[in-house]
């Protein structure tokens, strides 16, 4: 068994009377796709935000590669290699595809304070950027503005940006959302290939994709993690069926 | 400094604070409900002052002047909202800043054209002139006491309006979610016009009230506008309560600072220097207060955490 | 439609040609007008860095403009009166050497920008606008109530600073200095825009959340942009003080901040030569409308209102073909 690269230990978070995370513990190991599922309002987003650094837990710890990063801000965690895509796709929309990926590379090399170091004419940046764009299936679209991309293409751009971050963990929040049948199929294939790059913590409602991709599945309901296991274990778990799968799959 | 002098300064601070509250209340509602930054709010203050001065001089009645100030500022508010401001709600803040900056130029120069560059002076009405003896043997102007009282009553009225009336419920709903209240069937255009005009009327009233204490002149609105910004930064955007607390804090800090600091410095500096250093530092106090609030509560004392 | 680059060259050539022709024809007023345009363009180049690239709507850039001016005014007046600026802990004399004064003005403006920026950038949106305005106003009132350097009346200092090998009181020579500094600032803006820093700054304007998730802290990038921006505007303030041989609290006033924003909008936000086009347009309008009516600001306000409501993109946007950033 490998050491977990990303680990949540007993995370608690409340908003007023609402308990969004109730002592949640979860880990992500190398070379796996770990899916996080649960009905709306189960606390998936709150958990993801605590892992990414957007929210500080009331108690509990977040460990990255064995180090406590609970107090580290979003940018710091990103620089450690935590790459993410957002629930609603989020890119710099006035920038071209290439500029967006370059931005990710600048973040990785901690180059934001390079006052005079050019970007677009620096092949040390543009060559790898083009590579990541091609891997995400956007070759030829480098000079298009992100705002002009279709929804599915923007999702791919986010993947290209995540690749550019030299990721050690992917944190993907509903990458299939709104993609349609064909789009989700392509995205599933893309994610399947990404697992060799870095392990993926995948929040997803698309059960076909989850069952096709996941090595392990964790199920959340009411702020608690009610089960973690392989696909077969989760399918068989009576509590999971009661809380969630009973409605989602027959 | 004797206790009675201190009491006098505290009352002056309260009076200044109440005037700032009238100025800030409308501004903070417009910020909170419409998400609009209105630099031209000071122009309505000026319009109120000129309307009051003009009518009071023509009729001899200060109270008719007050009514005229309220009416002029409210009507100007309705017109400006319908002609200009309405087009700005969906624009970014930069466009709002520019358009309302342009409005300042138009209003200021327009007023200069109508009334000339010389300041006008308003007399305190006979009913409110004179002074009352305070404990400690100091005479305090009735007019300033009346301003404090009127400000307090208006504050109570505003709290009631926002807290307990149908209009207030809509205002608060609009702050929370614009689409929601449109979905509830509220005429949002009319609601916005009403809120905007309510704010400008209060600003006009503030201008009219101050017109008797200072001179009435072009450009009088902007320094007060910037103070109102400080009030709102301290109190928090969209909060009437924040505007009241912020306004009183700013009013008291500024007034007491200006009277106490020179005295304090006189303890270890020669009088002329103490006066200079003291009053220069006093002019910084409210901004230091603002900086302090920003460090500890970036969205203001009573602001929602959304900055 | 013209390519923006040619338009920029034409603008800069015109700004150089007009005062040179005026020199030949002996029209010093025109030279002064061109100098004023160059100086305000320089100030607006500074603001354009924060506002255009960073999306930071600072309504307080008058603070840096005025601080730059007061550095010149204070040190120059000490030098002219042969009074040391500081006697303790070390004696520091005033100076009239521009080559000493300029870096000092830049440095002091940058420090003020660092302090104001560090506080203001904790917020965003409307709050940021109000706070920058308030801090600038704080300096304004401080200048008004501090009697040592003229207080409300301002501080005249009779002679411009000295520059090796030039008679700075000669209008065309002084214009040359201002023009050269404007070119340097434009080059700097261009390089920053095309650099990693510019990418990060523009990214933070469009989507701060995303930029943060890529490992870049928007606050730090914005603060650096704000400091550089304030420094450039401070240099412009220094030149403006020298042009008038006078500094007054008006340089720190909110109208100055408003005018700088107006210049950028008139010219085109975030565009390299937007500030030059805007400053040219603004002062020519002032000159022209001012000749027509005593109440020219009324008409200017109406024009501005129409530009904001109906013609976005500014002069350069209207004339140049919209370029994609590549």
Automatic annotation (TrEMBL), chain A:
Gene3D superfamilies: P-loop containing nucleotide triphosphate hydrolases. Residues 6-247 form the ABC transporter domain. GO terms for cellular component: plasma membrane. Keywords: ATP-binding, Nucleotide-binding, Transport. GO terms for molecular function: ATP binding; ATP hydrolysis activity. InterPro entries: AAA+_ATPase (IPR003593), ABC_AA/LPS_Transport (IPR051120), ABC_transporter-like_ATP-bd (IPR003439), ABC_transporter-like_CS (IPR017871), BCA_ABC_TP_C (IPR032823), P-loop_NTPase (IPR027417). PANTHER family: ABC TRANSPORTER ATP-BINDING PROTEIN, CONSERVED COMPONENT OF ABC TRANSPORTER FOR NATURAL AMINO ACIDS-RELATED. This is Amino acid/amide ABC transporter ATP-binding protein 1, HAAT family. It comes from Tropicimonas sediminicola.
UniProtKB/TrEMBL annotation, chain B:
The chain crosses the membrane at residues 16-37, 44-60, 66-85, 97-122, 142-162, 191-211, 223-240, 247-270, 276-296. Keywords: Amino-acid transport, Cell membrane, Membrane, Transmembrane, Transmembrane helix, Transport. It is found in: Cell membrane. It is a multi-pass membrane protein. GO terms for molecular function: transmembrane transporter activity. The keyword Transmembrane applies. GO terms for biological process: amino acid transport. It comes from the Bacteria. GO terms for cellular component: plasma membrane. Its main location: membrane. Belongs to the binding-protein-dependent transport system permease family. LivHM subfamily. PANTHER family: ABC TRANSPORTER ATP-BINDING PROTEIN, BRANCHED-CHAIN AMINO ACID TRANSPORT SYSTEM PERMEASE PROTEIN LIVH. This is Amino acid/amide ABC transporter membrane protein 1, HAAT family. It comes from Tropicimonas sediminicola.
Automatic annotation (TrEMBL), chain C:
Its main location: membrane. Residues 1-22 form the signal peptide. GO terms for molecular function: branched-chain amino acid transmembrane transporter activity. It is found in: Cell membrane. It is a multi-pass membrane protein. GO terms for cellular component: plasma membrane. The chain crosses the membrane at residues 36-57, 62-79, 99-119, 126-149, 169-189, 223-241, 261-285, 297-320. InterPro entries: ABC_transp_permease, LivM-like. Keywords: Cell membrane, Membrane, Signal, Transmembrane, Transmembrane helix. It holds the Pfam family BPD_transp_2. This is Amino acid/amide ABC transporter membrane protein 2, HAAT family. It comes from Tropicimonas sediminicola.
């Amino acid at each position: 068994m490998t050491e977990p690269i990303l680990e949540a230990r007993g995370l608690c978070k409340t908003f007023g009377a609402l308990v969004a995370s109730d002592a949640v513990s979860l880990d992500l190991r190398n070379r796996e796709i770990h899916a996080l599922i649960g009905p709306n309002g189960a606390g998936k987003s709150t958990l993801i935000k605590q892992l990414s650094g957007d929210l500080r837990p009331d108690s509990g710890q977040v460990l990255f590669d064995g180090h406590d990063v609970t107090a580290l801000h979003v940018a710091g965690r990103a620089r450690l290699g935590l790459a993410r895509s957002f629930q609603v796709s989020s890119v710099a929309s006035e920038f071209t595809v290439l500029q967006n990926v370059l931005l990710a590379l600048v973040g990785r090399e901690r180059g934001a304070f390079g006052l005079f170091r050019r970007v677009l004419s620096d092949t040390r940046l543009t060559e790898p950027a083009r590579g990541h764009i091609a891997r995400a299936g956007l070759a030829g679209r480098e000079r298009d503005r992100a705002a002009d991309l279709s929804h599915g293409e923007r999702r791919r751009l986010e993947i290209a940006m995540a690749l550019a971050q030299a990721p050690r963990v992917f944190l993907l929040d509903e990458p299939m959302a709104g993609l349609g049948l064909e789009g989700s199929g392509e995205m599933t294939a893309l994610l399947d290939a990404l697992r060799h790059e870095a392990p993926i913590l995948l929040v997803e409602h698309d059960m076909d994709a989850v069952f096709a991709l996941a090595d392990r599945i964790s199920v959340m309901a009411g702020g608690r993690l009610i089960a973690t296991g392989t696909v077969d274990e989760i399918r068989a778990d009576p509590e999971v069926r009661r809380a969630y799968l009973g409605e989602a799959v027959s | 400094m004797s206790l009675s002098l201190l009491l006098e300064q505290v009352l002056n601070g309260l009076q200044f604070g109440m005037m700032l509250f009238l100025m800030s209340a409308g501004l903070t509602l417009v910020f909170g409900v419409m998400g609009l930054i209105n630099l031209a709010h000071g122009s309505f203050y000026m319009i109120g002052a000129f309307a009051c001065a003009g009518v009071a001089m023509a009729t001899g009645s200060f109270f008719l002047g007050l009514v005229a100030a309220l009416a002029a500022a409210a009507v100007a508010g309705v017109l400006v909202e319908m002609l200009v401001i309405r087009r700005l709600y969906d624009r970014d803040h930069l466009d709002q800043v520019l358009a309302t900056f342009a409005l300042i130029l138009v209003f200021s120069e327009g007023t200069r054209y109508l009334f000339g560059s010389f300041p006008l002076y308003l007399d305190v009405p006979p009913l409110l002139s004179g002074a009352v003896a305070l404990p400690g043997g100091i005479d305090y102007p009735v007019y300033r006491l009346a301003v404090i009282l009127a400000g307090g009553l208006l504050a109570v009225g505003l709290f009631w309006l926002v807290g307990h009336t149908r209009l207030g419920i809509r205002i608060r709903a609009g702050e929370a979610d614009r689409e929601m209240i449109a979905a509830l069937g509220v005429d949002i255009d009319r609601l916005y016009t009403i809120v905007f005009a309510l704010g400008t009327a209060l600003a006009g009233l503030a201008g009219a009230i101050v017109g008797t204490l200072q001179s009435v002149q072009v450009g009088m609105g902007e320094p007060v506008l910037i103070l109102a910004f400080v009030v709102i930064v301290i109190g928090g955007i969209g909060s009437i309560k924040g505007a009241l607390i912020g306004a009183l804090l700013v009013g008291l800090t500024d007034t007491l600072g200006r009277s106490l600091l020179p005295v304090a410095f006189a303890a270890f500096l020669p009088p002329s220097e103490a006066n200079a250093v003291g009053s220069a530092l006093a002019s910084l106090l409210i901004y230091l207060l603002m900086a302090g609030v920003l460090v500890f509560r970036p969205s203001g004392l009573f602001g929602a955490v959304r900055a | 439609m013209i390519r923006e680059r040619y338009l920029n060259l034409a603008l800069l050539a015109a700004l150089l040609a007009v005062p040179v022709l005026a020199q030949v024809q002996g029209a010093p007023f025109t030279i002064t007008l061109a100098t004023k345009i160059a100086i305000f363009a320089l100030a607006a180049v500074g603001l354009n860095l924060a506002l255009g690239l960073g999306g930071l709507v600072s309504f307080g850039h008058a603070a840096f403009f005025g601080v730059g001016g007061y550095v010149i005014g204070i040190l120059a007046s000490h030098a002219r009166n042969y009074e040391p600026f500081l006697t303790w802990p070390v004696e520091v004399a005033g100076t009239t050497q521009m080559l000493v004064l300029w870096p000092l003005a830049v440095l002091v403006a940058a420090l003020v920008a660092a302090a104001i920026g560090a506080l203001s950038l904790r917020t965003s949106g409307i709050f940021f606008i109000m706070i920058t305005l308030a801090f600038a106003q704080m300096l304004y009132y401080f200048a008004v109530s501090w009697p040592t350097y003229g207080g409300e009346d301002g501080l005249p200092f009779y002679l411009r600073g000295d520059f090796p090998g030039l008679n700075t009181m000669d209008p065309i020579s002084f214009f040359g200095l201002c023009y050269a500094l404007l070119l340097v600032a434009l080059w700097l803006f261009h390089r920053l825009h095309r650099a990693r820093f510019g990418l990060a700054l523009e990214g933070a304007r469009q989507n701060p959340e995303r930029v943060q998730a890529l490992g870049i802290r928007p606050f730090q990038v914005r603060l650096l942009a704000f400091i550089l921006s304030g420094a450039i505007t401070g240099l412009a303030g220094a030149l403006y003080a020298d042009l008038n041989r006078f500094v007054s609290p008006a340089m720190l006033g909110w109208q100055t901040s408003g005018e700088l924003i107006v210049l950028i909008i008139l010219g085109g936000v975030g565009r390299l030569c937007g500030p030059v086009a805007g400053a040219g347009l603004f002062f020519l309008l002032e000159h022209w409308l001012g000749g027509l009516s005593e109440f020219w600001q009324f008409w200017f306000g109406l024009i501005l209102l129409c530009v904001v409501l109906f013609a976005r993109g500014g002069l350069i946007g209207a004339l140049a073909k919209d370029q994609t950033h590549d």
